Predict the 3D structure of the following.
Amino acid sequence: MGHRSLFWGAAVLLLTNTFARLLGFGYRVILVRLLGTEGIGLTEMVTPLYSFCLVIAGWGIPLAMSRYIASEMAKKQYGNVDRIKKCSMLILSTSGLFITIFSWLFAPWLVNNFSTDPRILLCFRWLTPAIFIVAVCSGYRAYFQGIKKITIIGFSQNVEQIVRVSIGVSLAMLLLPKGTEIAIIAVSLGTVAGELAGLLYIKYCYYRHQKRRPAIIPQAMPANISYQQIGQSLITYGTPITMQRFLASLLLMLQAWLIPMGLQQAGYTGAAATELYGRFAGVALSLVSLPGVFSATMSFALLPAIAECEINSNQLAHRINTSLSISTAISLPASLCLFLYGNYLCQWLFKCPEAAEPLKILALGGIFIYSHAPITSILQGLGKVKILFINLLISGGVFIAGLIILVPQPGLGIRGAAVAILASNIVNCFANLYQLRLFSGKPLNWGKIIVKPLFALLGAIGALLITKEIFTFLPLNQTIAAVSAIVVMISTYLIILRPKFSYLLLK
């Protein structure tokens, strides 16, 4: 019953995550049209610095918190659950408040040393209150994840996104006449308002949950672990996760610094470099990340599924092969659509056809980009967190070297950044797969993972070519023809592949 409940919870989470991702994507489209690619480039320069502050404030506590709460819930040690929650929230509130104050006071120094454009100062400074809010909210989300109430997490993300988009768009339209530097503050204020709304919603859900829980439970099962033990366990478990996230945030910061700098070395002006970076990060990367919602949601349920069958090698191998085959089955048609219709999507959605060139380069490696989340969850489920950090360090070195070497080349420019990201994801994917093969103890079923989806994709491409040929004789506009061709292609792909996703997930 628990597995079925978790499955339906994951299904609801997929729907809510998809809604939030689509809403966020629509928000990005509106911002690009309102602020222009230069404005969105400035906001993208703020994101890595903001993410870095969030990593430091959280320090991996939420992930450790959910893991320990789940463990104590299984033992029916409800007193320990309450104590873990209180200790974790105290740490998160304290660290979140400290990092928020530090970021506000030292914002000029942070921007001057970790950004190539000083115009993001106001945008970053008005974003800093969200650090404290996110730190506290992550604690409540970790609590509900630990007790397997994951639908609440999805709905809180929807509330957050709705408020963020509404406030962000309204303020952007209001502040736009005052100039780009002032208008981008709307993005920060929208984020703060959205995070606050998400926190209020999930806190309301928490109090409702507490009222429904029998009051006798905490008294009948008193805590048998001290706050000191809990704090030490949280920090010990969270530190390796933090190092990995710290490195990922550092790479994002270097990306936002090295790409504009490399473009300037290639001969572009500062404003032109910011605009090119805005096209790349705000348009190309946004479109590439959109299909990732499926693999990300699958990964949420994959980690405990891998951890519970670690001692059963046959079941472990089955779940690994199944999850990777599902990831590939989703990645291939998504990548093909982005590659074939990149120009159309960039023009139709963002009115920025120039972003199609790096988008197509990234789409070539979509299978490596989208497989990152499930492979990471599998290795985390196996307890191989240090391996993930080492592989990220290696692929990060490839990424930074690629940016330094390729972006300043006049013949490459922003395309060099796309190549660097693609090379980094390929190295990371193969490194993780190699380690996965070692720790799982059994070979991967490449026929199931790669051969069958590729065969189905070839048939889908054939159907697409025939459909496009037929459409040349029909009086259809470009949008209807493109959507119809994609529907035919994906339908053919699924018919040939015949994926029994529900069976695979429930088995």
About this structure: The mean pLDDT is 82. Residues 460 and 490 are 7 Å apart (CA to CA). DSSP finds 23 helices and no strands in the chain. Residues 1-232 form one domain.
